[in-house]
Amino acid sequence: MSQFPTVRLRRLRQNERLRGLVRETRLSVEQLIYPLFVAEGIDQPSEIASMPGIVQWPLKALPAEAERLARLGIPAVLLFGIPNEKDEVGSQAYAEQGIIQKAIRVFKETAPETLVITDVCLCEYTSHGHCGVIEHGNVLNDASLTLLSRMSLSHVAAGADIVAPSDMMDGRIGTIRKALDEQGFQQTPIMAYSAKFASGFYGPFREAAGSTPQFGDRRSYQMDPANHREALREVEQDIIEGADIVMVKPALAYLDVIRQVRDTCNLPVAAYNVSGEYSMVKAAAQNGWIDEQRVALEILTGIRRAGADMIITYFAPDVATWLKNS
Ligand code: PBG
């Protein structure tokens, strides 16, 4: 036997054409969802210090941004509202003239083909910053469901194409599905934040959305980062209740969970490349320590390889530009 190898994996790596033919995973702009923060009571886009390149948008600047995203070919946005007034029960979350409802209408008027997905959760709207209603310091599950249904309905009535409950209350998918169906919105899909972990990676988002809990933390409703079997139970339950798309969030420290969800269910799987994952790349790149484009594309490709069909990412416009130029 020759001392030299007959099997040479390097044969297929010799040039970009060959590498392209054998590439197993592709990243394309069609798979990306871009999160946007729309704030009430500001006139100019307001920078978010911990998320370079991401801003809070005033309503009046939204049409130009909606047009830019549509031109870049970004198929969908995930909208977050930041109201002026917060109260115990998050009333602005389901107010007909609330900031999120207005933002949905602006989007559907200026870029009607762009899919508008809305985050359904009370934390940006409650004075205490928790994702549901509070009694004696506890987040009440069933009382919160009623409000989350109202919130979903008001988003859909304003024109939202998909609702994405991110609160992690038990039973929300079934409750919201029923409420939508009863009001004639049988065709509106639900993207469930199914396996949502209590994560330190949401830090920059809480600055962006002004949604830091005023006491305690979210560990009594979001998942323990140590658990993966429980993540599959969350997914299973959301499927039983009528979810159309299931999500794993965050993405980077949870690639194994994405893979397991992909292998155990047949629904489309979304992954959320969250704020802290974005900020880490930005900070290191600004220091000249890593190549931003290369690292961002590598991370997003990794999330796709793990099994995500679609990715929610703050890099979406950059990726659209990079892929266009490559
Ligand atoms: C609302 C919500 C959060 C994120 C999305 N929806 C914050 C949280 O749960 O604390 C985080 C998104 C990100 O970090 O990019 N509950």
TrEMBL record:
Keyword NADP included in the entry's annotation: no
Pathway the protein takes part in: Porphyrin-containing compound metabolism; protoporphyrin-IX biosynthesis; coproporphyrinogen-III from 5-aminolevulinate: step 1/4
Binding residues for 5-aminolevulinate 2: 275, 314
GO molecular function, one term: porphobilinogen synthase activity
Swiss-Prot/TrEMBL catalytic activity: 2 5-aminolevulinate = porphobilinogen + 2 H2O + H(+)
Active site: 196 (schiff-base intermediate with substrate), 249 (schiff-base intermediate with substrate)
EC supergroup of this enzyme: lyase
EC number: 4.2.1.24
UniProt keywords, alphabetically: Heme biosynthesis, Lyase, Magnesium, Metal-binding, Porphyrin biosynthesis, Zinc
Residues binding Zn(2+), per UniProt: 121, 123, 131
Binding site for 5-aminolevulinate 1: 206, 218
Gene Ontology biological-process annotations: protoporphyrinogen IX biosynthetic process
UniProt keyword Cell membrane, yes or no: no
Protein's job: Catalyzes an early step in the biosynthesis of tetrapyrroles. Binds two molecules of 5-aminolevulinate per subunit, each at a distinct site, and catalyzes their condensation to form porphobilinogen.
Assembly behavior: Homooctamer.
PANTHER family: DELTA-AMINOLEVULINIC ACID DEHYDRATASE
Family as reported in the entry's similarity comment: Belongs to the ALAD family.
Name under which the protein is recorded: Delta-aminolevulinic acid dehydratase
Organism: Tengunoibacter tsumagoiensis
